[in-house]
């Protein structure tokens, strides 16, 4: 959690419980929360604080204690939602009014949920299984939603920009060449106008005045022409230098960012991926890095060139003739400002366009995958009408955009022309004057040419703000991922023994995904190498969680997990996972051929090993029925296969890796009996010589198991072989077994 | 049938219940599912008219029909932040800040009535756009027109 994100900035709420409140409470504070509504749902504030034995309500402004009572008076805590907010009702006896009602907005809901949880535990006479830090809880829970949508890093544009520029460091040479290219080509661009003036003042005029003979004039003229030609060539050579070096450099930076991002993503915990949307992560690696490329390759330089051009133009003009120069340069800031204003206006109109455009694409992404439904219900006329309606709305909105910009740019050009005209007006009389203030025809021509060069840079600078904003937000989104840190990392001397035996031990293991609601409440068991263990129990009991802890996708908060007698944290994470095979309930296959999927992670494995594994998994038969056998391409996520087929491929994958510990999470759910039998056979072959943990809802799957663990509400409720568990007629297992027998009987009818 | 207990909880035939309208924002008054503590439906109320007046009053009170969210009376500021849009508003219940995702927009409920759903689930609304002052209208216009 980053401390820089301020509650005050986001919600206007204190960063933590004020000291004055703490001083009024003698006991240690376990948790506290902020209630931001009063009982008529008006925005206000008060603090609620829970200690070991008491509950306090403190006024948010005066920080005076308003109410406090002993927690043992509480009988129940209820949360109710309405449109204006939430209310937490703290009840005592049924025939008495509530002890207290607390009102709050959704911002406080997560924290209040924890308060409610804590109070409920206390009502039951229990305590939290682990220590928590009330300040940290309060801060991170209030901001959890913002952090989820936004970022973990604080928003600091300058920092982000500097950091982005630091990626240029490995490309110093290219950067220097590119910058020189840009600078030279810009400065050289100023020469042609100068030469034109020279021709008139130094050659044409003296010749017309009869001072210069025609031969000399022509000769000098050709020299100047040659110089002019040379400038053009030089300019384009340097311009090539700049474009070439900068676009390659930009590509390099984008590549570096992608490499770093992807590698970093691989190192992050499952926790990170369950919080972020896949689409958002993908767009950071793809389109955000592309935007950064655009900005570095062109944006930075274009703007730089535009600034250099404007400044040098003004300088040249003012030195050539300070009066005319000033007339031309002084209004420039004004023009820039009007462009900025225009940009702001366009921003808000573009926002409307974007919104309406999104509607249009939504219709598409809705109906095209759902075409079958559209056809089945014969709704194409309705869909066409809907699409056309939205299309018209979009078109109207874009028309507004075009109205605005088509009006603005000619207007801007007109102002520039007016400035030019003003320059003309001042210049014209001076062309015919004599003495000090006389203006030479050559200077005037140079001036005219220079003035045409003013528009382009102004335009580019006008777009700078938008470009910078886009690039910064992309950079920020990229850095956000780079700044997320994995919690599960190897110790400095991580163990990589040559072999894993497969002994697993849980000792008083406690675990919670969110740090408050316990999922595993002190689990104890011992699994010997080679044992097959069945995990059964009601849904949400924590079976999958146990398997995730064994492969260390998460770390337990309390107690310990030992693998071969050694704490799990001491092993190298990669080594551990190599030795643990997992067949997940929703097996994930990648786009590619069947054999690539089976051989995932073992590129050098021999073909016959793959086939053997497929045979063991009972997959060989159906694979051979495909046109391209093992080379059949299975679509994204293996969607061209049936659920049972996918499962068998992933079993084959697990077999091929020959893991010492095998975890099967509902490997036989959602398939027909025939397929179940086949998978079953595959599993029977598979379990030999390994430690196996199989999660199953159908108890019949577990007939092979040496022992069965019944997991109920985060605890191991029963342990033993099938027959033994059945002897306890009060037990969960007995009930489960009977229920399933009943069901089977009904189906048999 | 319905009864309010001294502790403020709603009871139906002696069982503590909660009311869950099937269409919470469109029509709170009909199609109400009455759930007990374990979220089992104990009764389904198609229309309030099925009840006696006295009973209706109790139900209406627990449906919170009078609440539609916080009514916005003035839009003070709209700020674009990374991935978020921050709204600083004045409401009938005081000054408030709320956030929407950058790619989410207010809902047009009726002609002139707009609903803003904050990322935390809080509801804000503009009852009549045209009754807001011009500055507020101008500020909010890109997001609703
Ligand atoms: N990533 C997660 N973040 C937060 N809570 C989670 C997460 N995964 C699971 N849970 C919660 O943990 C509890 C235990 O989940 P788990 O998947 O271990 O159950 P299970 O015993 O495997 O259930 P089932 O038989 O339905 O698969 C559930 O209440 C679930 O809501
Ligand atoms: Mg599970």
From TrEMBL, chain A:
<dbReference type="InterPro" id="IPR003439">
    <property type="entry name" value="ABC_transporter-like_ATP-bd"/>
</dbReference>
<keyword id="KW-1133">Transmembrane helix</keyword>
<dbReference type="GO" id="GO:0015421">
    <property type="term" value="F:ABC-type oligopeptide transporter activity"/>
</dbReference>
<feature type="transmembrane region" description="Helical">
    <location>
        <begin position="412"/>
        <end position="432"/>
    </location>
</feature>
<feature type="transmembrane region" description="Helical">
    <location>
        <begin position="322"/>
        <end position="340"/>
    </location>
</feature>
<dbReference type="GO" id="GO:0016887">
    <property type="term" value="F:ATP hydrolysis activity"/>
</dbReference>
<dbReference type="Pfam" id="PF00664">
    <property type="entry name" value="ABC_membrane"/>
</dbReference>
<dbReference type="GO" id="GO:0005886">
    <property type="term" value="C:plasma membrane"/>
</dbReference>
<feature type="transmembrane region" description="Helical">
    <location>
        <begin position="292"/>
        <end position="316"/>
    </location>
</feature>
<feature type="transmembrane region" description="Helical">
    <location>
        <begin position="175"/>
        <end position="197"/>
    </location>
</feature>
<feature type="domain" description="ABC transporter">
    <location>
        <begin position="504"/>
        <end position="738"/>
    </location>
</feature>
<dbReference type="InterPro" id="IPR027417">
    <property type="entry name" value="P-loop_NTPase"/>
</dbReference>
<keyword id="KW-0547">Nucleotide-binding</keyword>
<keyword id="KW-0067">ATP-binding</keyword>
<keyword id="KW-0812">Transmembrane</keyword>
<feature type="domain" description="ABC transmembrane type-1">
    <location>
        <begin position="176"/>
        <end position="470"/>
    </location>
</feature>
<dbReference type="GO" id="GO:0005524">
    <property type="term" value="F:ATP binding"/>
</dbReference>
<feature type="transmembrane region" description="Helical">
    <location>
        <begin position="217"/>
        <end position="238"/>
    </location>
</feature>
<protein>
    <recommendedName>
        <fullName>ABC transporter</fullName>
    </recommendedName>
</protein>
<feature type="transmembrane region" description="Helical">
    <location>
        <begin position="444"/>
        <end position="462"/>
    </location>
</feature>
<dbReference type="InterPro" id="IPR011527">
    <property type="entry name" value="ABC1_TM_dom"/>
</dbReference>
<dbReference type="InterPro" id="IPR039421">
    <property type="entry name" value="Type_1_exporter"/>
</dbReference>
UniProtKB/TrEMBL annotation, chain B:
<protein>
    <recommendedName>
        <fullName>DUF1854 domain-containing protein</fullName>
    </recommendedName>
</protein>
<dbReference type="Pfam" id="PF08909">
    <property type="entry name" value="DUF1854"/>
</dbReference>
<dbReference type="InterPro" id="IPR015005">
    <property type="entry name" value="DUF1854"/>
</dbReference>
<feature type="domain" description="DUF1854">
    <location>
        <begin position="20"/>
        <end position="140"/>
    </location>
</feature>
């Amino acid at each position: 959690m980053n401390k820089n994100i301020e509650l005050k900035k986001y919600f206007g709420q204190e960063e933590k419980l004020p000291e004055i409140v703490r001083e009024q409470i003698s006991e240690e504070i376990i948790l506290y929360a902020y209630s931001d509504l009063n009982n008529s749902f008006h925005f206000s504030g008060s603090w609620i604080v829970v200690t070991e034995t008491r509950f306090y309500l403190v006024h948010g402004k005066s920080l005076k204690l308003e109410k406090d009572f002993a927690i043992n008076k509480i009988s129940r805590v209820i949360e109710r939602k309405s449109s204006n907010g939430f209310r937490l009702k703290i009840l005592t006896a049924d025939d008495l009014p509530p002890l207290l009602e607390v009102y709050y907005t959704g911002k406080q809901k997560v924290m209040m949920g924890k308060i409610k949880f804590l109070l409920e535990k206390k009502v039951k006479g229990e305590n939290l299984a682990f220590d928590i830090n009330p300040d940290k809880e309060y801060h991170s829970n209030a901001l959890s939603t913002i952090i989820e949508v936004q970022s973990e890093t604080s928003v600091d544009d300058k920092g982000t920009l500097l950091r982005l520029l630091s990626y240029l460091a490995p490309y110093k040479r290219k950067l220097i060449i590119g910058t020189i290219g840009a600078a030279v080509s810009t400065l050289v661009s100023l020469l042609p106008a100068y030469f034109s003036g020279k021709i008139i003042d130094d050659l044409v005029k003296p010749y017309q005045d009869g001072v210069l003979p025609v031969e000399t004039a022509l000769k000098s003229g050709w020299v100047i022409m040659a110089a002019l030609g040379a400038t053009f060539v030089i300019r384009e050579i340097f311009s090539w230098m700049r474009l070439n070096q900068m676009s390659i450099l930009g590509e390099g930076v984008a590549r570096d960012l992608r490499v770093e991002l992807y590698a970093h993503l691989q190192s992050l915990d499952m926790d990170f991926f369950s919080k972020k949307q896949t689409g958002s992560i993908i767009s950071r690696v793809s389109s955000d890095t592309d935007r950064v490329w655009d900005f570095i390759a062109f944006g930075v330089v274009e703007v730089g060139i535009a600034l250099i051009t404007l400044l040098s133009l003004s300088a040249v003009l003012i030195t050539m003739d300070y009066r005319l120069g000033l007339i031309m340069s002084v209004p420039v800031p004004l023009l820039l400002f009007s462009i900025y204003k225009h940009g702001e206006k366009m921003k808000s109109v573009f926002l409307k366009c974007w919104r309406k455009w999104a509607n249009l694409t939504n219709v598409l992404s809705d109906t095209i995958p759902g075409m079958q439904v559209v056809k089945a219900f014969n709704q194409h006329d309705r869909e066409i009408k809907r699409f056309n309606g939205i299309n018209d709305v979009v078109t109207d909105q874009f028309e507004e955009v075009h109205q605005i910009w088509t009006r603005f740019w000619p207007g801007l050009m007109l102002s520039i022309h007016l400035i030019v005209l003003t320059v003309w007006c001042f210049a014209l009389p001076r062309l015919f004057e004599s003495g000090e203030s006389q203006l030479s025809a050559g200077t005037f021509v140079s001036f005219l040419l220079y003035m045409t060069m003013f528009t382009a840079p102004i335009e580019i600078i006008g777009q700078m703000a938008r470009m910078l904003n886009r690039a910064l937000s992309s950079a920020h989104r990229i850095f956000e991922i780079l700044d997320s840190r994995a919690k599960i990392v190897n110790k400095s001397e991580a163990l990589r023994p040559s072999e894993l035996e497969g002994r697993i031990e849980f000792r008083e293991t406690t675990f919670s995904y969110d740090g408050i609601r316990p999922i595993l409440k002190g689990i104890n068991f011992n699994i010997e190498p080679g044992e097959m263990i069945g995990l059964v129990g009601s849904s949400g009991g924590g079976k999958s969680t146990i398997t995730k802890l064994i492969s260390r996708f998460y770390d337990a908060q309390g107690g310990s997990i030992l693998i071969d007698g050694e704490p799990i944290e001491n092993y190298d994470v990669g080594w551990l996972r190599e030795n643990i095979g997992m067949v997940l309930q929703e097996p994930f296959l990648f786009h590619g051929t069947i054999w690539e999927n089976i051989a995932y992670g073992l590129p050098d494995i021999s073909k016959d090993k793959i086939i053997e594994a497929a045979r063991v998994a009972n997959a060989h038969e159906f694979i051979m029925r495909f046109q391209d056998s093992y080379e059949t391409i299975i679509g994204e996520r293996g969607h061209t296969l049936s659920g049972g087929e996918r499962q068998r491929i992933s079993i084959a994958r697990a077999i091929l890796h020959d893991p010492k510990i095998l975890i099967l999470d509902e490997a036989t759910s959602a398939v027909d009996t025939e397929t179940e039998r086949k998978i079953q056979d595959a599993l029977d072959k598979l379990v030999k010589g390994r430690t196996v943990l199989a999660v199953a809802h159908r108890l019949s799957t577990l007939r092979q198991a040496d022992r069965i663990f019944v997991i109920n509400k985060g605890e191991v409720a029963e342990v033993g072989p099938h027959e033994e568990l059945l002897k306890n007629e009060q037990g969960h297992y007995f009930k489960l077994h009977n229920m399933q027998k009943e069901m089977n009987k009904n189906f048999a009818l | 049938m319905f009864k309010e207990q001294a502790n403020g909880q709603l009871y139906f035939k002696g069982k503590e219940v909660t009311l869950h309208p099937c269409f919470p924002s469109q029509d709170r008054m009909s199609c109400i599912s009455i759930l007990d503590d374990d979220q089992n439906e104990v009764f389904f109320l198609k229309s309030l008219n099925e009840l006696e007046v006295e009973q209706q009053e109790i139900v209406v009170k627990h449906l919170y029909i009078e609440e539609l969210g916080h009514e916005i009376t003035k839009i003070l500021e709209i700020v674009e932040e990374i991935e978020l849009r921050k709204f600083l508003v004045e409401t009938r219940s005081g000054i408030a800040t709320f956030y929407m995702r950058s790619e989410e927009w207010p809902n047009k409920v009726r002609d002139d009535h707009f609903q803003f759903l904050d990322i935390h689930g809080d509801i804000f609304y503009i009852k009549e756009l045209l009754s807001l002052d011009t500055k507020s209208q101008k500020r909010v216009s890109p997001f609703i027109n």
